[in-house]
Amino acid sequence: MRSLLVVICCLVAFLSNGKNLRIGLFEKDPVKSILVKYNIGRYGLLSESKQLGFFQGKRDKLSVKAYGDKVVVYLNNKKLGSYVWFRMNKQSKLNSLLLFPHNKEKRYRGDIVFYASKGELQVVNEVDLDEYVKGVVKGEVGYGYNKEYYKVQAVISRTYGLFLHKHKEDGFDLCDHTHCQVYKGINYDKNIDQAVNETAGEVIVDSTIGYLNTLFHSNCGGQTVTTDYVWNKKLSNLESIKDTHCRKSSQANWRRTISKDRFVRYLSNKTNRTKEYVLGKKLDFVQGYRKKYYKIGGKKIKLTKIRSYFGLKSTFFSVHDIGEKIIITGRGYGHGVGLCQEGAIAMSKKNYSYKEIIKFYYTGINVIKESERSFYLLF
Ligand SMILES: [Zn+2]
Ligand SMILES: [Zn+2]
C-alpha cells in the first residue's frame, strides 16, 4: 500500500511540475491532525477517488486527521470523507496557505498533500525548487546577513536539495529539519529573495558533473578537515584548507573545564587500562593543526568520539592537565568539513564574490546552471 501511495504521489507531482521538490513537513515534531486556513489564492481539493471542489473563501477552514492509514478531512466542520491521500492544488504561483501544527502558524506556497501511516499524519509540501531554497536559506541562516553571503548559501542549499533525497521510501524527497535541511516555509526577506533569484538554477558540480555533497559547518577554527576525520569515507572536493577569515568570529575560540577524575575514567574505559595506568601517562595534548586521534600509551581515540562524549563544540581542541582539573581549549564549532559559514560571512564583507567563496572552501568544483548539466553530461 505504501509503495503504491508513493507511486501515485510521484505521478501527481510529475504531472504538476517536474521541477518541484517534495518536502516532508513537521518531521521533528510529527502531528496526528492539522488545521489549514485560507491565506492567498484558490486551491483545488483532490483525493484518490475524485475532485472535491475548491478551498477559496477567506473564512474557509480545513482540518485533516490521521486514522490508521487514512486521513479524514473536514471542510468548515463538515466531513468531506476518508481518503488514502488528499491534496490541495494551488491555482496560481503566488498561492499560499496557513498551516497550524501544534497550534503554531506556518505559511507555505506550492501544493500540500496529506496521507497517514499508523495514525500519524504526513504533510508534504510540493514546492518549486527556488521557493524551497528561499525557505531553506531563511531556516539555515536566518535574517540579517548580506546578499553575497545569502548567494553562497542559496547555491549550496539548491545543490544539496537536488543531491540528497534520503526519504524516497517515505514518499517525499527531503524533510524540513536538520536531518536534511531546515526549511521554514515562505521567506519574507528581500535580500534572501534577491540572492536566490540572482543565482537562479545555479548548482555546484564536481569533475564528473555530479552534484557536490555541499557540507558546511559554523566555524572551522582556522582549518577545515576531510570527511575521513569525521566519518569513515574520504570524499573528494572536500579537502582540508587553511582559513584565516573565521579567526575573529564569535565561534573562533572556546574553553571547557572538566574534572580530571571524569577525564581519566573516560580514557580508562576507552583504552581498557586501569585508572592508575592512565594517571601515569601524560594527558596533555596539543593541536596546532588538525589531528585525527588523541593518543595515550600507544592507544588511539578518535577525536570525534571525545567531542561527542564531552559535548565539545569541535574536535579542534588541546588538553591541559592542571592538577585537579582538565582544561580544554578549542577552536571552531561544528564538524569542520566543507564550507565554514563564519569564514564565508567574513569573506562576503571583504568583497569576495559568492563564487570565489564557494571555490575557496570546495576544491576542484564548478558552479553551473542546473539546466546545463545534461549538456555537460554528454561529454
Ligand atoms: Zn531528512
Ligand atoms: Zn573557518
Structure description:
This protein has 379 residues and is α+β, with helices and mostly antiparallel strands. The chain folds into three domains: 28-126, no CATH class; 131-246 and 336-376, no CATH class; 253-331, no CATH class. The protein is built from ten helices and 22 strands. The strands form six sheets. The chain has a seven-stranded mixed beta sheet with strand order 4-3-8-11-12-1-13. Strands 7-6-5-2-9-10 form a six-stranded antiparallel beta sheet, with no helix packed on it. A hairpin with a 3-residue loop joins strand 19 and strand 20 (325-331). The longest helix has 17 residues, at 147-163. The structure holds zinc ion (ZN) (2 copies). One zinc ion binds next to loops. One zinc ion binds next to strand 13.
Say which molecules are bound, naming each kind only once.
Answer: zinc ion
Query: Which shape, going by the Cα principal axes?
Result: globular
Structural class: alpha+beta
- Proportion in β-strands: 25-35%
Beta strand count: 22
Tally of individual helices: 10
**Can you give the helix content as a percent range?**
25-40%
Name the average pLDDT. 92
**Low-confidence segments, ≥5 residues, pLDDT <50?**
1-18
Q: What order do the strands of the largest sheet run in, or round the barrel if closed?
A: 4-3-8-11-12-1-13
Gap between N and C termini:
41 Å
Summed up, the domain count is: 3
Report the C-alpha radius of gyration, rounded: 25 Å
Q: In this structure, how is the largest beta sheet organized?
A: 7 strands, mixed
